[in-house]
Specification:
409 residues, alpha/beta, Ribose 5-phosphate Isomerase B, Chain: A, TIM Barrel, eight-stranded parallel beta barrel, five-stranded parallel β-sheet, 13 strands, elongated
């Protein structure tokens, strides 16, 4: 376990005095402490402080959290409502060890009415020095995390996606290898009309938005500098603005990605496609990858935007792709996405099927992007499990779809 750690600590009025003793104790162990309040014994509501502590842990701003109320139980319940957080109420050193070793808890809650200061310090010390390393425990912890609900996809969007995928699945009984038909109007609602070329001009962006209006695409996907223009060009339409973050390498600092996401959302983006730290994933540094994703997820949740996570599958082996999907679920993302389109390969049917299988427990969307150039390509991706498609050839694809439907929308 790394040292020093960053620890968030909070309490309600009943836990205030114990918090005031624990904070300097944690600092004396060499760790950095962030005090989330409360600052007096005046009555307050513990869920607010438990949520603040848990949010810092979920976002990666802090490594662990400690929350104190009268019994510790209510704060554990509140903290566990924050996606990606596992909180445990502990009254002994044995429970603290178990919470970390068996359950990988990230937030410790304490009951000031049940433990004195010295006992609490011992519990904290055990909690901060115990790791979850056994594979059998980690597997079970992942099962717990998989029980979380969907990560924030709008209900109407999710219902439409599920209905569409079920409809397409029913077409699999057709001739072997035949792709299902898809009405052009339905197809358009699955497309993020994309222009990410570095040489794109304002005129090119205007054309992109005009095309998106004409065909009623789900969104336009652009670089951050064009978000404001797209918002203005698309005013009065249902087409959303999607912005890429950390594009195309994913190697930017986590803080930069989060700031870029927040700025894009302020300027009008309703969806954020962020590139993960690919090198960290390949290095097995899951903690860094999770915090990287979570920082952007938090920005999206604050701005009521959808977060898609670009894995860059062409650079990953199967195990890395599966871990990337699981970390995206753990971080509370809404979609996983195959590619930037700027690497050595793009979306494949095999990768879409793998990703759809991995994220099924949390019902995340799956976006196919990179190398999707024809109507036939789109149908294959949807049949494999894609619920959104990113295309720069969207107009050509729509023309092919219209021709296949005899000109009927």
């Amino acid at each position: 376990m790394k040292h020093p750690l960053k620890i968030a600590i909070g309490a309600d009025h009943g836990g205030f005095e114990l918090k005031q003793q624990l904070a300097p104790f944690v600092a004396s162990l060499g760790h950095a402490v962030t005090d989330c309040g409360t600052s007096s014994k005046e009555p307050v509501d513990y869920p607010r402080f438990a949520h603040a502590v848990a949010t810092l842990v979920a976002s990666g701003a802090c490594d662990f959290g400690i929350m104190v109320d009268g019994a510790g139980i209510g704060s554990a319940m509140a903290a566990n409502k924050v996606p990606g957080v596992l909180a445990a109420a502990c009254y002994s050193e044995a429970l603290a060890k178990n919470a970390r070793e068996h359950n990988d808890a990230g937030v410790l809650t304490l009951g000031a009415a049940h433990v004195n200061a010295e006992a609490a310090k011992r519990i904290v010390a055990v909690f901060l020095t115990t790791e979850c390393t056994e594979e059998r425990h980690r597997r079970r912890v992942q099962m717990i995390r998989d029980l979380d609900g969907a990560g924030g996809i709008a209900a109407d969007d999710l219902a439409r996606i599920v209905a569409r995928v079920n409809q397409l699945a029913g077409a699999r009984g057709a001739a072997a290898g035949a792709a299902p038909a898809l009405a052009p109007a339905d197809l358009a609602k699955l497309i993020d009309h994309t222009l990410l070329k570095p040489e794109a001009t304002r005129g090119d962006i205007k054309k992109l938005c005009d095309e998106a209006r004409k065909y009623a695409f789900y969104s336009v996907c652009v670089n951050p500098t064009y978000v404001k223009q797209c918002r203005e060009e698309l005013r009065g339409s249902d087409v959303k603005v999607c912005c890429v973050v950390g594009f195309p390498l994913g190697a930017q600092p986590t803080e930069s990605k989060a700031l870029d996401a927040r700025r894009a959302i302020r300027e009008g983006a309703r969806e954020i496609d962020m590139v993960i730290n690919i090198g960290a994933l390949k290095s097995g540094d899951d903690d860094t990858v999770h915090k990287d994703i979570r920082s952007v997820v938090e920005a999206c949740k604050d701005g009521r935007a959808v977060c898609k996570v670009i894995l860059e599958t062409a650079l990953l082996n199967e195990g890395e792709k599966r871990r990337g999907c699981r970390l995206s679920m753990k971080a509370g993302a809404d979609f996983v996405k195959t590619s930037t389109g700027f690497s050595s390969g793009g979306a494949t049917v095999e990768d879409i099927a793998l990703m759809a299988e991995e994220v099924a427990p949390r019902r995340l969307g799956v976006k196919a992007s990179g190398g999707v150039r024809t109507y036939a390509d789109v149908l294959k991706m949807i049949k494999a499990g894609a619920t959104r498609v990113g295309c720069s050839s969207s107009v050509k694809i729509m023309e092919e779809a219209l021709a296949a439907s005899g000109g009927k929308g």
